Every structure is written in C-alpha cells, then in structure tokens.
Fold this protein.
Amino acid sequence: MSTTSSTARRGGARPVDPAAPWAGPNRRYDIIKEGLVALLVVGLLAIGLAAVFSSPDDKSVTLAQWAKADPADFVTTATMELDGTSTSASYGAPYNTNGDGASLGPLKLQKWAGVRVPVNSAQQMVVDPLKTSVDPAVQTALATWQAASADQQLKWATNYDTAISKAPGNDPTKVSSGDYGPVPAMTAGLLELAKTGALDGILATGGAFYQTNYTVSLLFLADGGYLGALGDANHLGGDQWGMMNEMGSWPGQAWLWLYTFWYQVPPFSSSGNADALVWGLMMLLTLGLVLVPFIPGVRDLPRLIPIHRLVWRDYYSRYGSTRS
C-alpha cells in the first residue's frame, strides 16, 4: 500500500518522500569529542566505584582447609569416591559414563556430549595420591586394595560407607567393627596427606610448568558437604539466587536475574534436571525475542501501543506525522 493512499485515509496529510533531504532543525555537535568525554566520565566512575564498592577477594578453599575443618566429611567423601556413590563418580558426561546426566525430554543432551574430560574419581582422588605417602601402614593398605578384585573393593568401600552413615554424627572414628578391608587405613592416610597441604599439589599436577587445570580438586571439594555449606553461608546456593550474589551481602551479576529466577519456582526448584530444563526454557525465550519482528500481533504492539509518541512528543507537536 502506498504512503499517499494510507495518509489520505488518515485525513489527507501531506505525503513524505523518504528520499527528500532532511527539512527539520539541525544542531552542530562533535561526535568524537562527545565520545571521548563520555569514555572519560564512565571510566572515572567505574574506577572510583570499583575502589569503594569492589567485591571481596576471599581466599580459595583448599583441600587442606577442608580436611582440618571437617575431617569427618572429608573421610566420608573419600569413601564415597571409592564406592562410586559420590556426585562426580556417578555424574556421567563429560567425566564418565556412569550416569545419563541432564536431559531435555527425550534429548539426552549430556550423554550425547560424550566423555570429554575423563575422571576416575576413585583412582585419581584416592588411590593415586596415596601412592605418594611415606607411611608404611598406608602403603600396606594400598597394596591390599590393589590386589583385590573390583567386586571385593566395592564391597569394602560400600560396607564402610554404610557404617559411617550409621555412626553417631556420621563420624568415621565412631563406626562399629565390620568388614571394611583396607578402606579405613586408606581414607585416614588420605586425610593426613590433605592436612599437610600435599594433596592440593598432587591433584593439581598436570605435567605442565604452569598448572591451570583444577578439575579433579574442584570435583573432590564439590563432592563433600564442606564447600556447599560455605556457599550456603554466603548466600551462593542455587536456591538463594546464588548466581546473582557475591560473597556475603555484596551485589553480583544482577543481569542474570531472568536465568536464576527459574531455579526458584516449581517445577525447576524441585527437579534434579533443572539445569537442562532452565537452559531449554531460556533458549525458547531467546528464540521468541529474535522472532518478535515475524510474530503477528506481537510485532504490531509498538503501533497499537504508541509509547514512542510520548517519547517524541515534541517532534510530533512541531511537525506532525504521516505515519503511525
């Protein structure tokens, strides 16, 4: 439909030639100057506000810190690594094939990704580090473990794990007697190794001069309850809008509110598959945003609700309009 016919129906307003030179008012300005001034002002504000309100720089949590602060949780977690019931041991891709992982309906997203970062929790977090111990009792226990069949190893670790869960306060030092094989000596040896700080270095060794791969250390920490408790104390938990928080009461990434919001409401808040569900929902919302210009009704909202006329009311009062 032509501009002339559409404007005629609205009262015969004068048509506008899109190719005609601009006939409105002009104002001289220097875009380079304005850009530099804006950059300077924003830069000074950013530096000043960062100096006054910067987020805290807390020290990293270490395995040594965990072993000293909560030895019972450390030993329990080490046992779970051995019997394959820890989060990392049963996680699935990208670490192992022991779980299907997150999925979106029939789409096995995590499983399809495959094992990209192979992690054998029992071997890498417990057995291999114990090989560096100089304690004869630990080496004897380790030799017994390695000489046993996989079924026997699982039986020992499972028995000890079950005994810990039944002990007063889940304290490994208070478990009843049972068939645990070398597991108690192994986990006790690993605890002592961690307390000295040696375990942090052992798990971070990657054969390179500069070590930046802390995957195994982080997985081990996350498998226990100590790190999660620290996070909850600082309001960093997923059910505490954690992605939007910094340590303590400091504000964090507020622009993530739409993403983290869904973790607070059902069914996402109670689903073990929340990550995939929220990701899928956000992709759907993003697709909807991208397709706004093509969705009938939605694309017409600016014309049907002409808020732009309020913003540009001075212009419309001076020059009128030939288009809505």
About this structure: The two ends are 14 Å apart (CA to CA). The CA atoms of residues 164 and 170 lie 5 Å apart.
